[in-house]
Amino acid sequence: MKKVILIPDSFKGTMSSAEICTVMAQAVQEYYPDAQVHSVPVADGGEGSVDSFLQAVGGEKVSVTVKGPYFEEVPAFYGMLPDGVAVIEMAAAAGLPLVGERLHAEQTTTYGVGELMAHALERGCKRLVVGLGGSATNDGGCGAAAALGAVFRNAAGEAFVPVGATLAEVAEIDLSGLHPALASAELVTMCDIDNPLCGPLGAAHVFAPQKGADPAMVELLDAGLAHLADVVERCTGRDIRQLHGAGAAGGMGGGMVAFFGSTLQMGIETVLDTVGFDKLLEGADMVFSGEGKLDAQSLLGKVVIGVARRAKRAGVPLVAVVGDIGDNIEAAYDMGVSAVFSINRVAVPFREAKPRSKSDLALTMDNLMRFCRRMGW
Fold first, then answer.
1. Are 191 and 245 in contact (CB under 8 A)?
2. What are the angstrom distances between the C-alpha of 324 and each of 292, 320, 338?
3. What is the C-alpha to C-alpha distance for residues 154 and 175, in angstroms, rounded to an integer?
4. Which residues, in sequence order, are bridge partners of residue 77?
5. Where in the chain is the domain with CATH 3.90.1510.10?
6. Which residues of 88-100 are buried (b: 16+ CB within 10 A; e: fewer)?
7. For the whole model, what pTM was predicted?
8. What is the DSSP string of 283-346?
9. List of E strands, 327-377
10. d(CA 219, CA 224)
């Protein structure tokens, strides 16, 4: 009996990871009806991450009412996996869809994200996976920290919950009252960008304009994050100013490290650890992965390469089924990719290829399965 693992990234704007898994599984089972097919939809930390993890390993979607981006009450959720791991996507409480046209990066908060974390801790979760992506915020994670017991004080000694516009007012940070369950919990933050907290490549300059910030506001937000970094270092001893990934989600990446001592980890590594991928590889005959385009950027550790490295260590062949194949990807073969196939069957512009992508994927997988059977696999 064959054991096949399906673990593709989404084809951005075309097919979700779950949709790709479904198409791949149908093709495999058409030719190998008795095969054990394990689908692992990949989440990148943004919207849909909780659902992807629940689909991959099961568990419960927990509904909670928390503070939204403007401190209003909003319905939110997180995922509790069977082994007591909580998966939290910050977009559920602080995401752009929650603000609609009310784009004001200087006013929004991550407070509700902290409330989700607290709820999971109080249910006994000992490992929290927090996905960064799709945020409407630029508060450096201060809101989340406040929800979990951190106290921010201004020069007059008054406690307040900082937002982007008031980061420069933070004079002292007191973490002594943090939720006690944090002390025995492991926090992992899914973060696939390496932007620093502030500066030309920082959170404000790169991401705040899409959250409603004009050039003047970008400068104010950037200065606020720089000030926050100084206070964090003075009060906690942690230097987050140039930390790779600190600028993710309006500085939430830096805040997760500064306030909670979280690990920042590539999304695919978090997924693989959380679903027990190394164990899943035991006895596997083939892994199918894929992404919209396999190119030189992919070699830095995105989904296909992250999966391939582990498959290589386990001695399991991996086939990458992708939308496009870029130049200079030969190193992928040394990293564990056995073969790469594009689903593009005809030379047409993307706008014409997009509507037929699902059927093209199905036909490509059908060809691969025909070949595998013919070769006696």
1. yes
2. 6, 11, 17
3. 15
4. 63
5. 49-267
6. bbbbbbbbbebbe
7. 0.88
8. T--EEEE--SEESGGGGGT-HHHHHHHHHHHHT--EEEEESEE-SS-THHHHTT--EEEE---S
9. 339-342
10. 9
Residues of the chain with CATH 3.40.50.10350: 3-40+278-374
Can you name the CATH fold of 3-40+278-374?
A: Rossmann fold (3.40.50)
CA neighbor of 288 nearest in space, from 13, 54, 26:
26
Pairing of strands 286-289, 324-325: unpaired
CB neighbours of residue 123 within 10 Å: 14
Q: What is the C-alpha separation between 263 and 57, in angstroms, rounded?
A: 22
Q: Quick one: the chain helix, strand, coil %, rounded to 5?
A: 45, 20, 40
Distance CA 238, CA 258 (A): 6
- Side chain identity, residue 112: G
Could you list the beta-strand ranges (E) of 73-148.
73-80, 85-89, 127-131
Per-residue pLDDT of the chain (377 residues; tens, 9 = 90+): 899 999 999 887 788 899 999 999 999 999 999 999 999 998 777 778 899 899 888 999 999 999 999 999 999 999 999 989 999 999 999 999 999 999 999 999 999 999 999 999 999 999 999 999 889 999 999 999 999 999 999 999 999 999 999 999 999 999 999 999 999 999 999 988 889 999 999 999 999 999 999 999 999 999 999 999 999 999 999 999 989 999 999 999 999 999 999 999 988 999 999 999 999 999 999 999 999 989 887 887 789 999 999 999 999 999 999 998 999 899 999 999 999 999 988 777 777 677 788 999 999 999 999 999 998 88
The candidate with the shortest Cα–Cα distance to 92, out of 118, 66, 71, is: 66
Encoded amino acid at 135, one letter: S
**Pairwise CA distance, residues 17 & 40, whole Å:** 8
Residues pairing with 339 in the sheet = 319
Side chain identity, residue 55: Q
Asked if 274 and 40 count as a contact pair (C-beta separation under 8 A), the reply is no
Cα separation of 126 and 124, whole Å?
6
The domain made up of 49-267 is a member of CATH 3.90.1510.10: yes
- The Cα 259–Cα 174 span in angstroms is 10
